Amino acid sequence: MIEVRNLTKSYGRRTVVEDLTFTVPPGRVTGFLGPNGAGKSTTLRMILGLDAPDSGAALVNGVPYAALAAPLRAVGALLDAGAAHPGRSARAHLSWLARAGRIAPARVAEVLDLVGLGGEGHRRIAEFSLGMRQRLGVAAALLGDPGVLLLDEPLNGLDAEGIVWLRVLLRDLAARGRTVFVSSHLMNEMEATADHVLVIDSGRLVADVGVGELTRRAAGGRVTVATPRWAELAAALPDGSVRADGAGRLTVTGLDAAEVGEVAARHGIALHELVPHRSRLEDAFLDLTRDLDSPRVYAAADREEER
Ligand SMILES: Nc1ncnc2c1ncn2[C@@H]1O[C@H](COP(=O)(O)OP(=O)(O)OP(=O)(O)O)[C@@H](O)[C@H]1O
């Protein structure tokens, strides 16, 4: 569990993280989204105790990172895939980390296998592609079999197979009760990876919402429906929610597909089409951040559409 409370950080006169408050619970993949420079890495560094906030607090399992008894076992982090010493072999790098964290040496081979580098442990990190470095960074984060994982842009540099591999791994870790917190500036990548997203822009929280809920709300709950009895259905739906094309198709706003289907069923109207319109997460994000002078922060805990 990660808890961030009123976290604020400025560099010089620029406030890069502003009064951030959120919770990342175990058991789901939480995406941390925002454009370049939004303040994601700064927030992750403050959670890991690498940067001090000006005010507010970041707690991991109820305490500041620095107060964790066995930090590498509690929290695994991938911040910068380029941080490993290029002259070392992957195995030597992980063995060094394992020793520092008092983690059994046998775990090194296990995590190399887990990230698909089982046959590459002897190779120098300098020879690794960016994708292989990302995998090595994930291996390092998993070394202590931590309950909390923080990964900064882990999909960067991965090929299509690598992206699918990481998605499956992260979802599996979440299913096994881990807290998984993953940043990305690419909205569409997160749509397939995260259950829930926190969106920040200019250091401020603009959404804290289930992925399904975010896309549905950004699309305005628009549904198209086709039926030969369209005029009757239009009359049965709330005033002002329906636009008819006159050729058997209605566009309904403010109701979801299930609600429209229920109304039709109550009136015995057969539907030939019932199509909810989900915008892509990217559209949803743009919609949310378009007017940042009045950011629309909403929590959707009551209507989660978790997968
Ligand atoms: N040590 C620092 N000194 C001064 N400014 C900094 C420092 N670290 C970050 N910043 C600034 O803070 C802002 C937020 O940066 P941060 O790296 O947290 O954003 P981000 O959301 O992670 O973006 P990216 O996706 O590009 O990594 C940026 O404008 C950055 O230039």
UniProtKB/TrEMBL annotation:
Where the record annotates domain ABC transporter, the positions are 2-227
| Domain of life assignment | Bacteria
Q: What UniProt keywords are attached to this protein's entry? A: ATP-binding, Nucleotide-binding, Transport
Record-level Gene Ontology MF annotations: ATP binding
Give the Pfam families listed for this entry: ABC_tran
Identify the SMART domains for this entry: AAA
Q: What family is this protein classified in?
A: Belongs to the ABC transporter superfamily.
Quote the protein name from its UniProt record: ATP-binding cassette domain-containing protein
Organism (species): Thermobifida alba
